[in-house]
Every structure is written in structure tokens, then in C-alpha cells.
Amino acid sequence: MTIVYEKSKGLTDTPFHYCPGCTHGVIHKLVAESLVELGVLEDTIGVAPVGCSVLAYNYFNCDMQEAAHGRAPAVATGIKRVHPDKVVFAYQGDGDLASIGTAEVVHAAHRGEKITTIFVNNAIYGMTGGQMAPTTLVGQKTTTSPMGRDEALSGKPIRMAELLATIDGAKFVERVSVDTPANIRKAKKAIKKAFECQLKGEGFAIVEVLSTCPTNWGLTPVNALEWLRDNMIPYYPLGNFRDFEEGK
Amino acid sequence: MEEKVIMAGFGGQGIMAIGKLLAYAGMLEEKQVTWMPSYGPEMRGGTANCAVVVSDDSVGSPLISKDGTAAIAMNLPSMIKFEKELVPGGKLIVNKSLIDVKPTRSDLDVYYVSANELALELGNGKVANMVMLGAYIELTKVVEVESILKAFLKVFGENKTDLIPLNKEALAKGAEAVKKLQEV
Amino acid sequence: MAKVLMKGNEAVGAAAIKAGCKYFFGYPITPSSEIPEYMSKALPEAGGVFLQAESEVAAINMVYGAGGAGARCMTASSSPGISLKQEGITYAAGAEVPCVIVNMMRGGPGLGSIQPGQADYYQSTRGGGNGDYRTLCYAPASIQEIVDYVILAFDKADYYRNPVLIAADGMIGQMMEAVEFKESAHTDLPPKDWATVGTGGKRKPNIINSVYLEAETLQAHNKNLENKFKMMEEKEVLYEAFGLEDAEVVLVAYGTTSRIVKTAIKQAEKKGIKVGMVRPITIWPFPYDVFKTIGSSAKGVLAVEMSQGQIMDDVKIAVEGRQPVYFNGTQGGMVPTPASILADIEKIAGGTK
Lengths: 248, 184, 353
Prior knowledge:
Chain A contains nine helices and seven strands.
């Protein structure tokens, strides 16, 4: 019998708790595969956030620390400074990274901290039940913006990839999406390169992954993917903002 | 024996330094010592002071509050502020070069030392602090001058031996100045 | 090693390095800024890493990461900064991450003052952050003690896998005294086989974590923590006490305040008053039991603290109503004077208080 597909060894056998149609699972897989393909899984320490992926430490098959809300880049900094020869990554959502932990990620990037950050942006607070995120689109209804996000009240959504790309210490910044197989392949490539950035000692690397939240968006998984394409990608353009190899 | 001395002046007069020298010298003589600086914005505002306690027994409070046995006032604000903190009969050493008024209290032993002029006589105005320290040690005999010189190298670095003769002379100038006052 | 004259804050740094601390994460604040200043020079020389964090919050979370990765690490701050660190401290307690946190206490609440204070007693002894936890807390009264207890704190943190606090008032940080770095007794500590250092392909992943979403699981975790805290209460109480059996008045004070109290006691003794003293060295666990040895001649117990009287809760628990209790306190950076303490002693001894 020929094996045509195998679950990544970078993931444990613990079943995901994620909602049906949520793209966290896909993103976990891409991170796990990248670590295995680079041959560094056994030398990796990951940091889980507070948010939907709070239990990520149960899923990645490597040493993990669970951080306080928003502090994953600080925790990862502590780990990396103790073990500069190991691979350290932080996995964070939009509330974690772009709201309560903005200072931590900006300064980790600013220091050129040699860590890799996976930033999952689904434009909503999933775990707490669908409240407005810093990345919620203008007009998007959430449980704390029942009439839709009001720009006058809350401002426009924050574009973290663009913001972080202005920082010299950030050596790899890319925004990807996991809405189609083609985009998933691109996402994988970016994630892998974000780890290579660390392995080469270049500096801070981050991949912003546009993701869906069918449950809190009130859409079917397929419609959620369409909504992402139609609404998120126009505001959050995909592409690379900084690449250590291309000197940009 | 317990000496509780306040040293005060403005920033740059080497106040903290003579305090450290006294504390270090006391330690070298196996006495119990504390050195407590003023800190914070006060420090940045230009005035500097420290409290040094040298004692045969373990030191209680490192602060001096109405129980100072001596004070070295390098400038006028210091004299005004700290004469209040001395016990009756406490020694107040006043830098006559910069202070042209007398303390308000009449129950203190006051010594006027022209520290800046005496330092300039040695060719270096910076050692006015050492002149005052020399005067204080002469009056109290709290530590040996030799211990101060040993402490000097500990506090400022073993490579500062070339500065020893000047500082030794400055200590002697101060001692001489108060000896003269006592003779009068 | 010969005695050296050192400032408290610098002595803290030297002691930590002596204890094998290799990582320091901090943010400057008066009156503890000389700790990061000292570490920024001394730690690289000792083969370690000093990192000035972007905030107090980031600093303690870096400590969490480094401690969870198996390193001896430390942060230090003063009162408002320690408030900000409470998040990381409760996470470290929950995830059983060993670390040492030094608080050079100043006046509060809020920004308060930069002058010495002891009003972080509740915060230091009752956990400080959310949830059921305690932290061993040493309250040194001299530079020698802060050196000795910083060194001990690293061993205790590793032994119990719990944060350990040093709560000193700002005066201890700023003061210089003679200090000797003694060779400390070696403590046998279990290997840190729980630390996240990479599996190396040889074991299942280690996880540093304080989340237990199932109530029963969390309660079981809480019980384990509670057992540790009980063990600390049994084994880690440290105090100095004298003259309790035949005292007319018993004084209670810690830190610099205890030294001022001792000066007042000497003065009281000259006046023929018998005064005993309890000086907690650990303010948590508190030395409750020693209060039982206070003799029947005692007319009262007087606590002195640079606060509104936070220590009184523990004094009352310890005294169990056997003697009347009194408080003499200063706030805002004011420091108690021997004269005011002596006045209280005389009143209690004379039955006029």
C-alpha cells in the first residue's frame, strides 16, 4: 500500500478543539510541517497565546509554554535568550498580538529578536464569543459592535504586517491567506521562510495569516472563506513586506 | 563610640565621595558603618547629601534625624537644612569659603574652614571636600587618616595612587585649620 | 572573601550572579535602578544576558519564559513596577516557574513617592495577583541580609518551583554597608527535567502552563500548589526574636524599620523598661508561633511599619487576643523615629496607652 498522505509528526495525536471550518487547524499543520521539513522540531520551543489557540501547547509536538495574554513575544524572548541555538516561535491571534500585546510584538521586532511569530488574523475575538478585534473591519458586526464597527468610535482596523515592516529589526514580514489551496501553499512557503529567517540569525520574522471564524461570523465554512476573500483581502493585501533575502 | 555625620553640599563638590571614604575607612578598621545618600529629584536638583554612621556596635537607623553628632556643610542651603539635625553640642563644620552667615543655633560647636581657598593653595580646588573631611577627622578621630587613604584606592580604583599625595595634603590642611581654631 | 562596602542595589545584583543567575530582565525605576545598571555591566562579564525590557509587564514575562526554559533568572523593580508585574508572578506561580523578584519598596498608592516604604506588605504576602497562590517573601534588614537571602531565594525558587520575592524598603537599596559574600551551603536540588529546552527527540514535549479548563483538574492542581505552600509555612519561617519571656512591651518590625526599633529599644532599656522583639525575616510565611512565647508580663505588642498598618493583620492573628496590640506607622516616605517609638513603649509600659 502506498502512503499518499500522512499527518505531520509535528503534531500530537490530541484532537483539535477548534470549531468546524476554522482555519487554525490548517495553520497548525503548516507550522508543524515546516518544523519537520527543516529538521528542527526536536529543538523547537513554542509559545501559545491566550485566545482560541490557547491550547496550542497540546497540539504541537514540541516543548511549549503557555503565555499570558499578549505576552508571547516577551516569553519567547526569555526562552530565546536562554537557548539562542534553539528555534522559538510564538503563535498568536489578533487580540493577543494586535491589541493587548502590541507593545510586546513591536519591541520584539524592534530588538530584532530571533524568533518566528505566526499571527492569525480572523478579524474577531473567537474564544470570548465574537467581540470586536483591533482587526475587525469597518461595518463588521460583532457582539461589541452590534451596529457594525464604527470608524468614528473605534477607528479603522490595524494593519500589523505593514506596521511591523517599518521596523528595522523585522527581517521577514509577509501576509498570507488560507482561503484556497493555492494560498495555503503560499502560506506554507512563507511560514517556512519565517523559520529560515530565524535559523539564519537574521532577526524577527512574522507571518500574518488571514483566517476565518465561521462560528462568530455566523457563516458556513465555505461562505466564511468567500467572506474572507471578498472583505478581508481587499483591506489586508496579501504579499511580502520585508524579506531578508531580497534586502527589502 | 557612635559617630553620625551628615555631609552636604551641591552636586559636584564630592560630597558622596567623602562619605564613602569615611564609611570604607570605618569598615577597614572593623567598625560597623552605613552610608545613606539622598536620592531622587532632590539629587538632580543640585543638592547632595549623605548620612554616614560609624559605630562600635551594630548600626540602628542609617538615617540621621535630630541625632547627628556632626555635620559638614559645604554650602549655605546645606547648613540651613542640616544644623537642625544635630544633637546639642554637635559639631558643625562650615565651609567658610562659600558660607558667609552663621548658623542660627547657639548650642553647637561650630568650626569655620575656608575649604576652597585651602584647596586652591594646594593647586586644586576640587579637593575642598577632602579638606573638610580632614577637619572632621581631626575633630572626632573617628578613623585614622591612613585608613582614609587606603579606602581611597578601594573607592576610586587601585590605579589612582598618583592622587594620594594631593589628597593626603588636603586632609592635613583641613586638620591643621581646625587645630588652629581650637588653639584660639 | 573580604568585606566590601556596597550599595544595596548593587549587592543584590552581585548576590544574584553569585547564586548562578544568568538572566536579568528589567525596567528602570527609582529607587531600584542601580540593579539593572549593575546587571547591564556585570551579567555579560559573567557570561549572562541583561535585557532592558520595554515594560515591567514584558520584563516579568521574559522572566517567565527564561525560568520556564530552565534558567536562573531575576527581575527587580519598585512598588508601581511590581504592581505591573503581578500578572507574570501569578502565571509563574500557576505554571510553577521558579524565579526571583526583588521589590525595593517606595511610598504609594499610585505613583506615590520615591522615598522608602513598606506599604506593599499585603501585595507581597497575600499573593499579589489573581488566584490562590503565595510567594515566599524575605524582608532583609541590612545589605548583608539582602545578599544572603537573594542567594537563598534562588535555591528556594528552584526547590519549590515557585516565584520568590525579596521585599526591601528603598533605604536598603540606596544604603551602603559592609558585606561579605560567603560560600553558601550547597543545596541538593532536583534536575529541571520539566523545563522547555527542546525534546531532543528523547522524550514527550514539556509544557509550561497555568491553564486547566476543567474545574476538577484545576482543583487538583490547586491542591498540589496548596501542599507546597503548606510545606513552606512549615519549613521556611525565619525570624529574629529576643526578650519575649519577661518583656513588658514586645515590638514587631522588619526591614530598615526594625533597626530603628532596635535603637528605640536600647533607649527604653536605659530607662529600665524590658522590651522584647520579633523581627520577621520572612513576612510570608509569617512567624506566628513565636508570639506564643511572649510571657505574661507583656502589657502590649507594638508593631512599627512604614504603612497604615498592613502588618497588623498578621500581628493580630499571631497574638490571638492574648495581649493588646498597637501600631506606630509612617507613610509617604517618612521614616519612623526612635523618639516616637520610645514614646509609645513608655506609654504601653506605663499603662497609659
